[in-house]
Each structure stands twice: as C-alpha cells, then as structure tokens.
Amino acid sequence: MTLSYPKIYVFSSVPEQGKTKLILKLYNHFSGKGYKVACIQANKGQNDFKPYIKKNIYHYSIPLEAAASKAEFERWVPTGFDIYLMEITLGKSPVDIAYLQLFDNVNEVISSEHLGSWDDYILKYFEDNWIPEGGKSECSPMDFRDYFHDRNIQRVAIGAMEKRGRKHLVGLGCL
Known about the structure:
175 residues, 7 helices, single chain, 6 strands
C-alpha cells in the first residue's frame, strides 16, 4: 500500500495582493472536486477570518511554535484533510521566514499592477508600515530576500488572467 500525504499549497505575499481571494477560489475549486480542504494561516489577524466566516469555511491559525520543525508543524495542523491551503502574510519578515523554512515550494501572490515593480513595492510597503517615522529599522525585507528565494518560488499574478478574459487557475507548486 502506498501512503498518500495531503498536499500543502503555501501562499505568501504582503497584504492586499489577493491571497485570501485566491485561497477562497481554490477552496471552492478543490471542494467542488470532492476534496476535504483546510484553510490555515500563520499569524491570523483579527480581520483575516471574516471572508472565511462569511462563506462558512473553517479557518485554522497555526502559531509560531509550530514553525520550530516539520514535526512540530504536523502536530498543530488539523488532521483529516486532503488539501491544505496555507496563507503566510508577509513572507519576507523574520516571523514569516520561520514558517517558510518548513517548505521547499511557495507561491508568491502578486497583484498584476505590481508585477513590474515588485521589489520596490515591497520595500515601500515595509517602509510605510514597519519602520518608525524618522527612524531606522533593524532589518529590511531585502535582508531576507535571498532566504525567501532559496526555494522554489512560483509567482502567481492576480488579476492578469481575469483581465485577459481567462477563467482558469494558474499551476501551483506544492510540497
């Protein structure tokens, strides 16, 4: 008998790029094919659960302790699902790197409007949201860029397919 492990699709990006919208579409896609799907997230915020609750979808939060090792991660992930859709909020911050080190394959979600200037957009996002006004930060997202890209990263452009009139999903890398 061959063991079949559940698939884990990992999505990472800064906020407002379409991660949650994509995950909800994928949830519907896989559920419609009869798979049991769990939506999980690192660092779930107070507002992040609302789109899931509105659609009556369970949304599991995975604490930072789970990032200690793959074995620890498996202890925290709910069991009984065929597919897991994992949302990692920023991807290029120290906390999110802890989660990413568990995975070889990550889907980086990017709004089509930022495709040509993604690195600049990330720098500006962190400057606007993390660095104290008139101050210096101890680290920059670019400090973690190489670590982030030291794995199989697949960029998923949100909006580009819809603008071209296509309704299919782009291929996704998974564990």
